[in-house]
Design a protein that fits this description.
- This protein has 158 residues and is an alpha+beta fold.
- Helices cover 40% and strands 37% of the residues.
- The chain contains three helices and four strands.
Length: 158
C-alpha cells in the first residue's frame, strides 16, 4: 500500500510539474519595428491608440517588421435615466478589429477587442465633455495595452 501511495504521489508531481507555463519576455518589444499603422473608423480613438503603441514600440533597427491595421467603431447609448426621464449616464462601447501583419515571418493575426465604460452627465457641459474625454482616453489606453500584450505573446511564440 505504501508503494502505491508513493507511486501515486510521484505521478501527480510529474504531471503537475510540466504544466507548460512560459514566462512572457517583454524585452522582445525592442526587436519589433512598426512600419505602418493603418486606421479606419473613429479618428480620435485611433489617434490615441496609435500614439500609445508608437510610444512603446519605437525601435528603428529591427528584423521583425510589423504592419498594424485598426478598424474602430464607437457606439454611444443611454445607460441610465432619472425619474424625470432625463439622461444621467451614457455608455460608450468601442469595438476594435486589429490586424497584425508580421512581414518577415509571413504571419497575419486578426482579432477583436471590445471595451465598454460609462460616464455621467454633469450640471456643467464642460464637465460632461471632460468626463467623456477621460473615458475615451482610458478605454483607448486599455485597447492599446491589449494590442501590445498580444504582440508580445505572438513574438514569444516564434
Amino acid at each position: 500500500m505504501k508503494n502505491f501511495i508513493k507511486s501515486f504521489l510521484i505521478l501527480i508531481f510529474i504531471i503537475t510539474a510540466n504544466c507548460g507555463f512560459k514566462i512572457v519576455d517583454r524585452s522582445q518589444l525592442d526587436q519589433i519595428k512598426i512600419l505602418e499603422i493603418e486606421k479606419s473608423g473613429d479618428k480620435k480613438i485611433n489617434f490615441l491608440i496609435r500614439n500609445k503603441i508608437n510610444n512603446i514600440l519605437r525601435t528603428e533597427n529591427s528584423d521583425n517588421r510589423l504592419n498594424i491595421n485598426l478598424k474602430t467603431q464607437k457606439t454611444k447609448s443611454v445607460k441610465e435615466k432619472n425619474s424625470k426621464n432625463q439622461i444621467t449616464k451614457y455608455n460608450i462601447k468601442i469595438d476594435t478589429v486589429v490586424n497584425l501583419n508580421f512581414i518577415d515571418k509571413n504571419l497575419i493575426k486578426t482579432y477583436t477587442i471590445i471595451k465598454e465604460g460609462h460616464y455621467e452627465i454633469a450640471e456643467n457641459h464642460n464637465t460632461t465633455i471632460n468626463n467623456l474625454k477621460k473615458l475615451e482616453k482610458n478605454l483607448s489606453d486599455q485597447i492599446s495595452q491589449d494590442i501590445i500584450d498580444k504582440i508580445v505573446r505572438i513574438v514569444n511564440e516564434f
